[in-house]
Amino acid sequence: MRNIWLIFKQTARRSVLMAIVAAASAVLSILFFTLLAASGKEAEENGGIIDINYGVRLGVIDNDESPLSEDLKKYFTECLGMEIEEEKNYDFQADMLIDRNISAIIEIPQGFLDSAASGDLLPLTITTLDDYENAAFINVYAESYMQGAEIMSAAARGDEKTFLKILSSDLSAGSVTSEALKVELDTAERLQDAFSAAEGFMLMFTAAIMIPLSYVIMNDRRTGVYSRTVCSVIKPVEYVIGIGLFGVICCSVSNLIFTLFIFCANPDISISIWTVIAVNELFIMFSAGMALIFAQIIKSEQTLFGVGVGYTTIGCMIGGVWFPIADGLGTMGHIAKFFPQYWVMDLIRKLPDDPGYNILPNICILVLFAVLSYLVSAVIFTRKNN
After folding, report:
1. pLDDT tier at 309, thresholds 50, 70, 90
2. Sign of torsion over alpha carbons 298, 299, 304, 306
3. By C-alpha distance, which of 248, 309, 338 is closest to 284?
């Protein structure tokens, strides 16, 4: 242990720049996250409301033709920006729905106003196609209107005149719910997208930071430092562990700075901080193992530089750091799974949307990547020394 600590200190003295770059990578990743999150927030504040209702058409069968049914239709057209097709012939409306000329059929029952005034509101009948993308939104809008109508009904206490007076006021069901039902940019989703991008940025930095470790070992072999070191009381394995440990600690500190700052400043990110730290640490260990492998199989610094750039950039791209790799992508999707970056980003992207997502396979695969990198490094190292 003493010899490992000695090699660690010597590597630290020779690799001050590497430590500085590791700290700077955390700062740059945090800055990247902050800029992405701020740009999304600015879009929200500058009217970033998604008009998902533009061009949506509804079929309405009004069997009541009362002020309340008119208010409901006005709610869909004026408050939500939808278009309505009024036709009492259900078969005609059904044909339009099947042809996808309308998104849903809303049937307003006869006695709709009377039931609301009496305190026993009749439900709407909504017919949609299960696979139509606007069906869920329409049901939410209709339910919200009905909740507003029920509030008015309770306030009227069975008096129709009072109910109509409330309906014609600023407290009508449509005007009460219109603002609440505008779809704003989801803050949690915005933060998650920004975090995923920053996490990818951090993975790329981690892969790049480890490459200088290969240069240290390669330089020691070329200058004879390695030979003189292992001829002393220091064993070859202690030399390798000491150098690798320095790289792991540098990147681990960078990982902690990045993760703790983002999660402390943005507690709304819907993923466990410990999960993020764990997968990042496993990737750091894998990258350290790869640096040791590169140092032993690559002969020249120029070749190492090229391999390092490819591993850092192309590896991250194929591994899905910058964009999700769809499962149905074919050969590209299968190749991506041979990169640990894929398993890190797969977990980071899927876990927030599915709290029940099983992270164990991702963790196990990352552990296998890390162990395999060190096993391969140990085999190559043993053969070279023999």
Report:
1. confident
2. negative
3. 248
Three-class SS of residue 152?
Answer: helix
189 alpha-carbon distance from chain centroid = 7
Residue 182 is classified by DSSP as S
CA distance 312 to 281: 17
Name 18's Cβ contacts closer than 8 Å, sequence gap at least 6: 209, 212, 213, 247, 250
Distance of CA 67 to the CA centre of its chain: 46
Q: Of 257-261, 297-301, 362-366, give the range with the top mean pLDDT.
A: 362-366
Better pLDDT: 289 or 333: 289
Which of the two residues, 91 and 356, has the higher pLDDT score?
91
Q: Alpha helices of the chain — where are they, by DSSP H?
A: 2-14, 16-45, 67-74, 90-98, 112-118, 135-156, 160-167, 173-178, 187-223, 225-230, 236-265, 273-297, 301-309, 315-318, 331-336, 340-350, 360-385
β-strands 83-86, 104-108: how paired? unpaired
